[in-house]
Amino acid sequence: MAIGPSTTTSLNDLLPLIVQEAMFVASERSIMRGLVKNYTLAPGQGKVVQVPIYPRQNAAAVTEGNEVDNTEVTTNLGTLTVSPVAIRTLLTDFARTASASNVVADLGRLFGEAVARKMDQDLTSLFNGFTAPTAGTTTITAEQIFTAVAKLKADAVPSEGMVCVLHPEVAFDLKKALTTTVGFDAGSARPYAGGSASSDVANEAMRMGYVGQLAGIPIYETSNMANSGSAGNFIGAVFNRDAIGLGMIGDISIETQRRASFLGDDIVCSAYYGKAILMADYGRSLNNNSTINP
Description:
By secondary structure, the chain is α+β, with helices and mostly antiparallel strands. The protein has helices at residues 8-29, 93-98, 103-124, 142-154, 168-179, 200-208, and strands at residues 37-41, 48-53, 76-81, 83-92, 132-133, 162-166, 181-185, 190-193, 196-197, 213-214, 217-221, 233-240, 244-259, 264-277, 283-289. 33% of the residues are buried.
């Protein structure tokens, strides 16, 4: 098949494919966006989202015939300030025409991964701002997750939308504890794992390499989590989706500009979003060291 001359028009024809690929990869690689509360700003609505936060109210018993006391309901405001995130590359005419790979798909994948990684890193960086840590700098245990869930439920945080997010190297220690055989029950002919009878959770961790659910909540892993200062130390969290807000203007945007002096085109991928903790008491951080990254 003959390859015609590269022009700005022919590149623009490919843009929908680049955008589609980038948005698909971003949605597949980013786990945090789907775990937090999303807000969308329409064009012309400014760059700040102010979210009203209503504190919990209490009802009281009333004596028949007496007037019900007035309760003043005040709100706090969570602020999401939107700012741009972008990545740019210069795609030369020669690279586009001579490449054996599908440059369009490659660019979409790379841009999607970059945006997803940045978004997840920004959102996981908020974990340290939750009200209270469940544990100090220790190796993670299932008990810590059960404790965090119990504490949140005790504070009337809804179970629906509650999740746990860990770094893979921290999650390794959790899976190791769940799947380590420490004994054998002759009566049931079943091994003991992690100090208790082998369970579906342990079996799933051994077969599939991940922990699907623990303490009634999904367990997610992401490497898009910054080291907290010392090697192998990462701060995960158990939280309800309403704890963190993500405000976006539109979605991923890609545009081009001809750079004739470079015999190519600038391709810029950008996203506009802001993030913040909306309710600090709706999450508890997990400050853990990994035994495989000392």
